[in-house]
Design brief:
This protein has 266 residues and is mainly α. The chain has helices spanning 3-24, 28-55, 64-84, 91-97, 101-104, 110-116, 124-134, 142-168, 170-173, 177-190, 200-209, 217-224, 228-253. α2 (28-55) runs antiparallel to α3 (64-84), α3 crosses α12 and α8 packs antiparallel against α10. The chain is globular and about 55 Å long.
Length: 266
């Protein structure tokens, strides 16, 4: 894909999301309640871990400051994924119900079109929460925010890639919606808890099987102490898993059986 084509895709993505956002904001009370509900949920989860750190101030080198950075990164990553590419979480459903036919009729890139097809507008509250929470970190600064946003985007690409891989398994195992949900849920739980406590087999899983390590631990380390070496390794890891996700999806697509559905959108 050329740079010019990539820019066009990015521009079209933002245009679609802007329209979705404006559409949701037509119902202002509902929109505000969704936003408040999501932020309340984030604050509740943060409060639980802050109480843990109040009792145990240091968990294998992590303090409440690392927790704040960690929650900022993960909230930003998941917020970006579910706002811009939540359609990836529907791949399993589209395969099982044979409704992917609808997307196959479009001239644009298939995986891209599926990914942007859904928008969880309330996930904007995760992004707002992440940016606001980071202000309470001891590492807050303009540079810190720039690094947070950068590693947050990279972490979002890892989460997105895993979501695509988990759902693509449906091409091979038939009705795998529950299995895909379980894998994504397990991955999300690994990104919800301070990863300094992971040891042995669990740490191996969080790096090589459910790559939550690249959504939490590595970004936190970079915000605390940025080095070009670690940043380069994170980029390589992100590109690798994204490449695998894309290739795996199109490999699985060869096994897709049409649902023979005719959808008319007005």
């Amino acid at each position: 894909m050329s740079l010019r084509t990539a820019v066009k895709y990015i521009d079209l993505t933002f245009e679609i999301k802007k329209r979705n956002l404006l559409s949701e904001m037509e119902y202002r009370v509902s929109f505000l309640l969704q936003m408040i509900g999501m932020i309340t949920n984030d604050l509740g989860w943060l409060a639980v871990w802050l109480m843990v750190f109040a009792r145990f101030p240091n968990l294998n080198g992590w303090t409440s400051n690392e927790l704040i950075i960690f929650q900022s990164v993960t909230a930003l990553a998941w917020g970006l994924v579910y706002f811009f590419a939540s359609g990836a979480d529907m791949i399993s459903t589209y395969i099982t119900e044979g409704t992917m036919d609808h997307f196959l009729t479009f001239p644009k890139n298939l995986l891209w079109h599926i990914s942007i097809s859904e928008t969880y507008v309330s996930s904007l509250s995760d992004i707002i929460f992440a940016l606001g929470l980071f202000a309470f970190s001891k590492d807050v600064s303009i540079t810190g925010y720039l690094i947070l946003i950068t590693v947050g985007v990279l972490a979002a690409l890892v989460a997105y890639s895993f979501m695509v891989i988990a759902n693509t398994l449906t091409f091979f195992f038939g009705n795998f919606k529950q299995g895909a949900w379980s894998l994504i849920n397990a991955f999300a739980h690994l990104t919800d808890s301070p990863q300094s406590v992971y040891k042995g087999g669990l740490k191996f899983i969080s790096i090589f099987i459910l790559p939550a390590f690249f959504v939490g631990m590595v970004p936190v380390t970079l915000i605390k102490s940025f080095t070009l070496g670690q940043f380069g390794l994170l980029i390589l890891a992100v590109l690798a898993i994204l490449f695998i996700a894309i290739k795996f999806f199109y490999f699985g697509l060869k096994r897709y059986e049409s649902g023979n559905l005719i959808n008319i959108n007005l």
